[in-house]
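Please decode residue identities from the backbone states below.
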């Protein structure tokens, strides 16, 4: 693993901690709102919510990153992503155009099929 890989892995772990902290904050806030804690404990609930969310986010991230086998798995994932040969811009445009055309064709086919079935069922059912 190169120094660059280790840096990216640390950035990913920090991003995970921030995302988990935000999700924890929103979850605790919602539970507090639903249970009436926000009104009852309005003086200290925001502080407890912030501290709990940060502790929870960073402790889960520490737990994920502390086990050597998980860290090795993440390093190998970074190494595998480096081996990927990404398509060029013209190839991407070409493949996107193909997807758009195929979706348009299937949309027309489904619209015709729906129209035929609608007319058939309207003629059968009064």
């Amino acid at each position: 693993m190169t120094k660059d890989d280790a840096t990216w892995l640390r950035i990913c772990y920090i991003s995970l901690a921030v995302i988990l902290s935000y999700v924890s904050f929103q979850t605790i806030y919602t539970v507090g709102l639903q249970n009436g804690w926000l009104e009852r404990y309005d003086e200290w609930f925001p502080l407890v919510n912030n501290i709990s969310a940060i502790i929870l986010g960073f402790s889960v991230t520490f737990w994920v990153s502390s086990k050597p086998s998980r860290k090795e798995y993440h390093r190998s994932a970074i190494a595998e992503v480096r081996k990927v040969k990404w398509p060029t811009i013209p190839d991407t445009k070409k493949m996107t155009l193909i997807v758009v055309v195929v979706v348009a064709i299937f949309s027309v086919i489904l619209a015709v099929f729906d129209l035929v079935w609608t007319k058939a069922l309207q003629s059968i059912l009064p």
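Observation: Residues 86-126 form one domain.
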